[in-house]
Amino acid sequence: MNIVCVGDCGVDHYLPSGKMLFGGITANFARHARRQFRPDDAVQIISAVGSDHGAELVLDSLEDSGIDCHISRLKGATPVQYISVQPDGERKFVRYDAGVLNDFRIGDREEQIIQAADLLVAPVYLQIVGLFDELMSIETSGLTSVDFADFLQHPDFELLEKHIGKIDIGFFGLSVDDTETISRVEASAREHNKLFVVTLGADGSRAFQGDARFDCPAVAVDEVVDTTGAGDAFAAGFLSRYCHRQDIFRSLESGANLAATVVQRHGAV
């Protein structure tokens, strides 16, 4: 199986300590996917980094990872996510600088790689909607999975509806109190016969496929240290199981188990 991940590779800058770790939704997912998918499955990244120290951190972290990297070096800043971890371990996104992702465009070679994917995986959030629109315009024959990464703050159903014909699997990180948004995600899954997964932190996860609904509890841990990257890990755990076995509930369990290991330590991977 050929898994192609398109989007952000960058740096997680922790405040107030100033500690900088490898990060980015796409990079986090790819690292987990390489460990979770079968050894003979290929995992590839298409992304861009800058000409700064952050780029070296990203590239060094991916070296010898077993991931095929197609990462452009552009003049400018590597994407940076500024993060503050609360006393309960819950991460708070303070600020995001997209850096060179603002200028990154998919070239002919990258387009060929995307077209050959059995599973295309991509995030979308406010700062990279242009890149996402470009990606969705490319014809593909495999499955497409999208992480709607900022639906908790910006539930953009217009963007979802715009591209829903190209999306097979969607991930939405929400709160159990977001009943209206969850209901709209469920209604969209039913109307378009899609597989949509809602992650709810300590309240578990929920999947909708057509008229079917699946609920799975979160895995209890002794201490939540840092929730950064938990959703990326969940998606990797879910997809690695679902793509080979199509068992939705067991896939939710696999995602929950992997996410539980991530929240017990600092950093997304």
* CATH topology-level fold name: UDP-N-acetylmuramoyl-L-alanine:D-glutamate ligase
Level-1 CATH class name? Alpha Beta
Number of strands: 13
- CATH architectural label: 3-Layer(aba) Sandwich
Low-pLDDT sequence parts: none
Largest sheet: 9 strands, mixed
**CA radius of gyration:** 17 Å
Give the helix/strand class.
Answer: alpha/beta
**Terminal CA distance:** 23 Å
What does this structure look like?
The protein has 8 helices and 13 strands. The chain is of the alpha/beta class and 269 residues long. It has one domain: UDP-N-acetylmuramoyl-L-alanine:D-glutamate ligase, CATH 3.40.1190.20. A 9-stranded mixed beta sheet has the order 5-4-1-8-9-10-11-12-13, sandwiched between helices. Helix 1 crosses helix 7 (230-245) and helix 7 packs antiparallel against helix 8 (248-262). The longest helix has 16 residues, at 230-245. The radius of gyration is 17 Å and the shape is globular. The two termini are 23 Å apart. The relative contact order is 0.14.
Present the secondary structure layout:
Elements: E1 2-6, E2 10-15, E3 20-23, H1 25-36, E4 42-49, H2 53-62, E5 68-73, E6 80-85, E7 91-97, H3 108-115, E8 119-124, H4 129-136, E9 143-148, H5 157-163, E10 169-173, H6 179-192, E11 195-199, E12 205-209, E13 212-216, H7 230-245, H8 248-262
Parallel strand pairs: 1-4, 1-8, 2-6, 4-5, 8-9, 9-10, 10-11
Antiparallel strand pairs: 2-3, 6-7, 11-12, 12-13
Helix pairs in contact: 1-7, 7-8
